[in-house]
Amino acid sequence: MQRTQRRRAHATRRAFLGSLGLAAAGLGAASQSSAATDTASGPDSTGQFVVEQGDQCVPVVPLSGDVPVEERYGWAVEGADFSATGLVDLQRPDTSILFLYDGPSGLSLVVVHEKYGDGTDGGSATFEFAGLPPDGEWVVRDDYYDGESNFDQWTRDGTEATVDWTWADSRTDGGAFRGLGTDPDLEIRIDPSYNDEAALSGEYYDGELTDWEVLSESADGPTRTALALDEPVVVRRGTCSNDGTSGNADDSEDSDRTTERSDDSEGSDGDADDESVGERQDTAGSDSADEDAEGDREDDDHPGKGMGHVRGRGKGHENGQGKGHERHGDDRDDESEQKRGGEDEGNGRGKNRGRGNGRWKGKNPGSGHGNGGGRSG
Length: 377
Known about the structure:
The chain has helices at about 1-40, 70-75, 250-300, 335-340; strands at about 50-55, 55-60, 65, 95-105, 105-115, 125-130, 135-140, 155, 160-165, 175-180, 185-195, 210-215, 225, 235.
């Protein structure tokens, strides 16, 4: 019987330990799965971005695709006429577009001027870039090739770059800069010069652009936000303020709330201070009464022989400039009356600044017996 019970107990223990092992294995598998997911999430697939121009702030979601940005752009393919043939679906006549593209090789900033094959007159533009990630590169330069018709000029110095574009009718210019996703503090400034303000304006082609737009991915396709042609923009990682501008939308409301709090507090501060002073003066009497009782207990055996209360050298409470509530008479036989009017015999200064030269110094507001004049403390 005992052997059977031991076997059952042993089996139960093994089952319990086995269940612990399975639970631990499950947690380990879940941890490994989570780690694999985190590892798979690269820097290009996370983060929020905005485009700012003046007081306008536009949240931007990168366009995404399963091909590198070079292939999506379609500049280097045969028969492309050195134009962005892979982005025709996003292009508009006489319009410059700006967007982010998240592909398998990383996050890119993409610029395209004009619409390919639309019969437009061409044009010119100059962009000055600042804040480019030093490890990034121009993986698409539209145009950059050996030939007499290549008039575009590309220069770069560290985090800064300048591009002068000019293009013929029905063609495009632009570029793609890849390597933005690895920069946690991404902030790129673009200073544009279109049409007559561009460096190559009128030298080769005379067409003009009329619009500049920033694109953002959405469930229904890219959304478009108009930008001014003559103002710089900033592309950065982050979010806009609550009202969609780059400023703080809550400043005025916070200021109003602060003013209200300030007005309310000023309206009550004086009364509150007066009340607190009054309370201190009112409670001074009760404090003195308590101390008198203690002094009386100590000096009952030898009335008038003490050196005054232990706190009899204080200067009294603040604002105590009153002349005292009452004067006590010369009834020396009434010891209780004397004690109410004074604390001990002697010349010590009382708690409430009563300065008496008589037998009993005024502890409570008022003068003691004799010629002393008491001031409430």
